[in-house]
């Protein structure tokens, strides 16, 4: 079985080069084929590792600065590998249909399909590599290839700026990673991750600081507040399958990094646990509050990703609290909830981005205030989007509910087992998670209703058409996964339980029978709900079968001149709630009020900006710019000056050598 | 066995009777004789027999929304302890499934309302979404604190407060009842949160979301909202009734508490005005503050603060 | 029973933080007076019956009946209905009042291991009442609501003395009484005059007094 892994990665990588040989028309299909083949073999391998419980190790001996690279697929890595492989395949499948229209516009795909398999294989490798330098190199390859994929539409200035923003943010994160890894490496004397365990045991006082450094580094990739500012810019700018890939899969590699560091720390401290819990609660609330205020379809989904990363962080925090306070049920349930949500989010977020891509292809706009009534001509996309919206709000019978259920469960276990600070923290997170869930319900009912339901709020350029078969295929597959995990969570939980075992360190993992029992009853309850819904729908159908069902216009209270602009818009829908969370959102309004008895022109314009960008990052950038402007004179464009600089450097070096040799 | 059958009959028959009691109380305060206590049953059957008028703007979402909402409330009834403090099913933290099934019903009600493309229904939908977001945290805090003090986490066990000291019990019972009653008023869309008699702009929340529904759809919705009120009332009743009573006495107490709640709702509707729309969030936040007080009292009790 | 009454007291403070009707403030203060009356009655014991009768009568009569009547008179005569524009919207004011109450409970928790002969709840709730009274003074604009906030602070201090001294010295009781009387009498007197001089009981106009 282990022979499936490295060849699988090789097959995926070869997809980059093979795609160069084919014409544009077939590039998508060929790349998908290679990625699919590789993903299939890698998934089988990963599934095997999880079920058998034995990690698989490969050692590559590379030349000196890197040394011997150990690639170990242990439980945690296998779990991440499994869903990265599957989700990357769906993304490439979707791209076959999505890229068709760009071909008609005459763009070239060579670079794009070259970098797609590179990014996929770098993501697969980054969760398995256990050597510092190799990890950082592959991490960098992942960031760079995703950058090139992101700026596919780089003739638009917005896209290019978003790409550069993303690149800079990633490198700021990498600085933190390099510093953290350097400290660990120096103290342990080797580059292998396993040697770091000893460092954490010996130098207890470093644990908290190192954890913060790594959290800053990996949190930039994951999208925790305050490192999140690249996310809402990058995801709308990328083509939809890349948005889905980045939001669904790539930011989870940041979560993987945090979890890997946790496995290296034998005794997590209370500080770490409360730190992650508090930041995640704030991230969740901030993310979804900002999502409510946006009007760009993909930006809403991007901010919602931030919220879901917050939920994952809450689960991780709960699990860490279990490790710190030594409450086993809290640990298992917390980490299971976090890992469940990692997988669930990757499925339904990529589904939502794909459906949004279909909407964009049909209407060529992303402003939801101009959309409406798309369900009439895009039934499939509407159903897919509905699946995604129900799942992301955490509602039964779909998979989002299962992850949140586990996290709630962990909190109740924490309340029952612990001391007063733990109880207070758990009650606060309970309320926080409930609040986040209710807010995401507002956000996604808003999004689904404004985009698909009602009447169109403006006229579209071209008639609205449904998405192509490849796109439908990818989305159907995701819907099936959503329903399967939601209705039969036991099987998914077995896989996750195998991965959670890694957090117990040396303790053998006793079979948590109580979890399986409750999961069984939970599944029964959810099935009853599904069956009852179907029953009521059938009842309604039977009742109306022989009756007079007529069609008429919507009741309008006698108003004769209504048009589609009289419908509720997104700003109206969210405004009662947004008034209550004003401190978190900066809404700028420009109003030209109606004047006189028979008002003429009147307008209202509102825009929101991210408060972290506006108050922290932009002023900081201005200060740095001012400082760096002082040195502008050095780069004056005169070649002779540059040669002079080189000469000065040589002279200084010679002087220094002469002084040193004395 | 008898208990299960009694509970099934309760779920099917009682909610509409509850509505009838509320209406009768309101007419008493208004000096009228009022409709018969069984009038909601007649209305329900009449609606089931009718056809429907569907708006051209709507799609299949509008058609399935009321059915899913009714199904969600009926499925949520599985977990609530009813007559004799027994529920159909119970497992660890089933109250999370309860709350989220009700939320799923709410999701479909909201998108069903937005499907009509009417600004009336949009207004009701947005307000309903915003106010229910404020109710959730308080509900979870109350149940989390109760789970802590009783050291169990399913509904039927949480409602069994007999292991708690009497001093603490009075506080918890009174405060939880007040908080859950506020939640009842908010979720059941009664005064002072919403006026079920009208759908004017001032009072548009729930009633206006179902403006375009007719026939069996409207019947399902009527039943679902009545059942939702009865379920939350059951939570209140279960906290008040002690656990070690004879089943018949406990069932009688259960039903009489429900009738008292119905009379109380009717009285409040007749005597109070609906709150200004901007004051409703404060009213609901008040429930969250009471929940916070409950949890603080319980935590203090455990750490020895309450002697 | 006593913890229950103390909790009820704290809930009235929450209501004060959220409401805008001035008459509601007065009725809440009356309710607080009644609650304090019951607390004295239940907590006192049978040692010093005349003292007990005096304290409970004074609390009920003055805090529960007399002062609310005087304030109600002032309010009705000046036709003051609502506190319309406070410095902070009422929603956030309720959040802050709840946080103050939570902080009060936290202080109760800190005090729970210090051996006092009274209930630690007393201390926490009274501290939060005093701070909430201050908060009301800071964020409201009408003078009459400032007086209400001051009354709430008085009630809080009274609750605090009930906690610390089971046997409340006569002098403290008289001092509290005097304090209240002066405040109410001067206010009633002043408010009538302010109404004539400035046409409106709004502190914005008082800033005209600065140099």
Write structural notes for this entry:
- The complex is a heterotrimer of chains A (662), B (307) and C (211).
- Chain A is mainly alpha-helical and 662 residues long.
- Among the domains of chain A are: 274-542, no CATH class; 585-629, no CATH class; 631-662.
- Chain A has helices spanning 5-21, 24-52, 75-98, 100-104, 110-126, 132-150, 157-188, 196-202, 206-222, 231-237, 240-264, 270-293, 297-325, 328-363, 379-392, 399-417, 420-452, 469-487, 489-500, 513-544, 570-578, 611-629, 639-660, and strands at 56-61, 68-73, 549-552, 586-592, 603-609.
- In chain A, the strands form two sheets. In chain A, strands 1-2 form a two-stranded antiparallel ribbon.
- Chain A starts with a helix and ends with a helix.
- The model of chain A has no long low-confidence stretch (mean pLDDT 86).
- With 307 residues, chain B is mainly alpha-helical.
- Chain B has one domain (2-303).
- Chain B has helices at residues 2-29, 39-49, 60-76, 94-114, 119-150, 155-158, 166-187, 206-209, 216-240, 247-271, 280-302, and one strand at 52-55.
- In chain B, helix 3 (60-76) runs antiparallel to helix 4 (94-114), helix 5 packs parallel to helix 11 (280-302) and helix 7 runs antiparallel to helix 9.
- The model of chain B has no long low-confidence stretch (mean pLDDT 86).
- Chain C is mainly α.
- Chain C starts with a helix and ends in a 5-residue tail after the last helix.
- Chains A and B meet through helix 15, helix 16, helix 17, helix 20 and strand 3 of A and strand 1, helix 3, helix 4, helix 5 and helix 9 of B.
